[in-house]
Write a structure and sequence with these properties.
About 15% of the residues are buried. Helix 2 links the parallel strand 1 and strand 2. It is built from 3 helices and 3 strands, in the order H-E-H-E-H-E. It has a domain of about 60 residues. The longest helix has 20 residues. By secondary structure, it is an alpha/beta fold. The N and C termini lie far apart (about 50 Å). A 3-stranded parallel sheet has the order 2-1-3, with helices on both faces. About 45% of the residues lie in helices and about 15% in strands. The protein is elongated.
């Protein structure tokens, strides 16, 4: 009977600790810093214009900076390679054509 009581006390203490700590640890909301939209084509083109309109709408909605960068070359593959090498944290996004999307195996 004694071991059951100890387990019950441990569970109760753990539940109390979790409920107290629940409000103290929160993840930062996304985005918490500027997001880079990398466009694979020259400035002034349709993809660049669309990226700038999307960036403006996201800035207004999320209250965070969205920076549009143009990295033209090789039909958008230069930009796609740069985004593929970026940290996988969601702060570097590719704006490209369907030809720039390829299937890759999970790591």
């Amino acid at each position: 009977m004694q071991p059951h009581r100890r387990n019950l006390l441990r569970l109760t203490a753990g539940a109390a600790a979790i409920s107290v700590m629940h409000g103290s640890a929160h993840a930062q909301g996304y985005p918490s810093r500027p997001v880079h939209l990398i466009v694979g084509f020259a400035a002034g083109g349709p993809l660049d214009t669309g990226a700038r309109l999307i960036a403006q709408a996201l800035e207004e909605r999320l209250h965070q900076s969205f920076i549009v960068e143009n990295h033209a070359g090789a039909s958008g593959n230069v930009a796609a390679a740069e985004v593929a090498r970026a940290n996988p944290d969601g702060y570097t996004l590719l704006v490209g054509a369907a030809a720039n999307a390829w299937e890759c195996e999970p790591l």
